[in-house]
Specification:
Elements lengths: L1 E7 L3 E8 L2 E9 L4 H11 L5 E6 L3 H14 L4 E3 L5 E2 L2 E2 L10 H11 L7 E6 L2 E7 L5 E8 L1 H10 L21 H22 L5 E5 L3 H5 L10 E3 L3 H18 L1
Parallel strand pairs: 1-4, 4-5, 8-11, 11-12
Antiparallel strand pairs: 1-2, 2-3, 6-7, 8-9, 9-10
Helix pairs in contact: 1-2, 3-7, 4-5
Bound molecules: adenosine-5'-triphosphate, pantothenoic acid and potassium ion.
Amino acid sequence: MRTLQFDAGNTRLKWLLRENGQPASSGFFCNTEDWDTVLPCFLDTVGKLDQVSISIVSADERFEQIKKHVLATQAVPLYKAAAKKVSAGVTLSYDEPEKLGVDRWLAMLAAHATNTQEIKIVVDCGTAITIDVLDKTGVHLGGYIVPGISLMKKTLASNTAKLRYVESTDNSDLAPGRNTADCIHHGALVMLLALVDRVVAQYPGSRVILSGGDGEQLEELIAVYKEGRVSLMPDLIMDGLEIAVREDRKGCAG
Ligand SMILES: Nc1ncnc2c1ncn2[C@@H]1O[C@H](COP(=O)(O)OP(=O)(O)OP(=O)(O)O)[C@@H](O)[C@H]1O
Ligand SMILES: CC(C)(CO)[C@@H](O)C(=O)NCCC(=O)O
Ligand SMILES: [K+]
């Protein structure tokens, strides 16, 4: 069984190829690339697939674009995940589940499936940063949406005369900056960490489950990391996508 998974975010289209459920290879395309050129090439070289599944939070046209190229190159079912009120032991707090970003939903499914009997603080550090709180029984208590690190810095650059966008330098330094670049970069990190630490402090004994493009640089900076209560799970959304497909199959069979 060969499954190709896509996680289409607002910055990148990530893919993961699984052989019999196990990750075999992975990569990404940037949203700024010409997908009409890169996707057909990629789908031609990836080999025969049995299934393609997708989590998408970027524009609907992007889904149509991926679908067009998948169906043109592979005779496979394409599964598009959507948030639900209840599935795989997770109960969503939204009255309108379809309004929740599917990436958040899938991250919660995968976090709950770790089965650790702890409150989970699911932190996904992508273009936007989302924090979702799941109680021990899988009930979603709610969440937060804030700009991601790059977005915070881009916003400063595009709304001021004297600030320019700066790439991160020494990531783990949280000291007050002594030049503009450090003031901006350390400021973004401290803001984000203050938020995460504050949410964690509200739920004693909770576990932080961390994912997304900027997840790794935050891991060791989160206060409860020292207590062994941070789990970096880079494939969180893809793991959630596996669970969602499995649950949907069960639903069809039953
Ligand atoms: N190779 C890379 N290309 C682009 N961004 C990267 C890369 N590696 C790390 N990043 C960081 O990852 C962040 C984007 O994270 P990610 O790729 O998870 O976002 P995304 O999936 O597009 O976002 P989202 O799912 O939130 O819409 C950027 O802010 C950037 O700092
Ligand atoms: C917040 C993002 C952009 C994070 O990728 C995504 O989950 C999304 O577009 N959500 C829709 C709004 C919501 O989740 O309430
Ligand atoms: K994401």
